[in-house]
C-alpha cells in the first residue's frame, strides 16, 4: 500500500488528504475536510502530547520510527513524519506522512474511520447518560453533608465523593468537547494514586465480602493524567470484584522494573478468583478485539489499555484457570522533580 498523506490546520482539522487515505478509511476527502483528524484516526502521540499539536506549537518536524497505532480497527506499526507548514492565512498547520500499514490487522466489517467515529459517538452518548444521575448523586451528597455535619467519618467520605464528582464532571465536559486532548499529564507518584483507589473501594469491597490491600511502599514518579490513571485502575479493581466470591482477595502493588534499559513503573492488580483460559487471555490481549459493551468486562479493560498506551505504556495479563488473575500496567517512570533539578 502507498504512503498516506494528509494535512491539518492549527485546530488539527483536515485541510487536505490523498487517495490512499480515502481508500484506507473508506470515505472521500470531502467528508474528511473540516473534521478533527482524531475522529477518523487514532491520536498520534509523542510521549503524552499530540504529536501534530506539538509540531504546530514549536515549528519543529517530528519523525516517529515504528510508531504503533492501536484502535478499534486493529494494531500495526508504521513510520510517521510530521512537518510544520505555513498556510495561506499565515497560520501554521502540519503535514503528515504515514508509511506502509500493510501489517495492520483490519476488521472485515467496518472501515477504520467509521469505527473510530462510532467510538466518539458512543463516548458522547455515555457521557450524556452519566450526567443526569451524577447531578442527582451530587445533590444527595450535599444534603448528607449538611444534615450530618457532626459526623466526622461521614464528612470524610462525602468530602471524597464531592471531590471525585467534580473531577468526573470535568472529565465528561472534556470528553464532549475535545475528546482525549483535554488530558493534562502531571508528575505524580503511582503509589499515592493507588492509595486513593484503595480508599475509594474499601466500602464497596467490604459490602462484597472482599478484602483489598496495597502492598509495598515504593515511591515511583510517573507523568500522567491522575484522573485517567485512577479510572484505569478502578476498571481493573471492579473487574476483579465482579468475579470474586465472598472471602476473595485483591492486591494492588507498584514496583520499578527495567526493560530495554528504561525504567518502568509496573502497577499490578491481582486477585485470587477463578482465572481465565488461554483463549480468553489471547482475546483480551488482542488490541483488535472489539469489546462487547454490556456483555462482558472487555470494555473497561479496553479503556484501561487505551489510557496506558496513550502514555507510552502497555497492559499485560497473567492468568490461569483456578489460579487467579494478575493485570499489569507498564508505565514509563519519570524523573522526580529533585532528580530533574539535579540534572539541569
TrEMBL record:
Pfam families: HATPase_c (PF02518), HisKA (PF00512)
UniProtKB keywords: Kinase, Phosphoprotein, Transferase, Two-component regulatory system
Keyword Cell division in record: no
PROSITE patterns: HIS_KIN (PS50109)
EC identifiers of the protein: 2.7.13.3
Single GO MF annotation: phosphorelay sensor kinase activity
UniProt cross-references to SUPFAM superfamilies, sorted A to Z: ATPase domain of HSP90 chaperone/DNA topoisomerase II/histidine kinase, Homodimeric domain of signal transducing histidine kinase, PYP-like sensor domain (PAS domain)
Ranges where the Histidine kinase domain occurs: 125-335
Catalytic reaction equation(s): ATP + protein L-histidine = ADP + protein N-phospho-L-histidine
Domain of life: Bacteria
Name of the protein this chain belongs to: histidine kinase
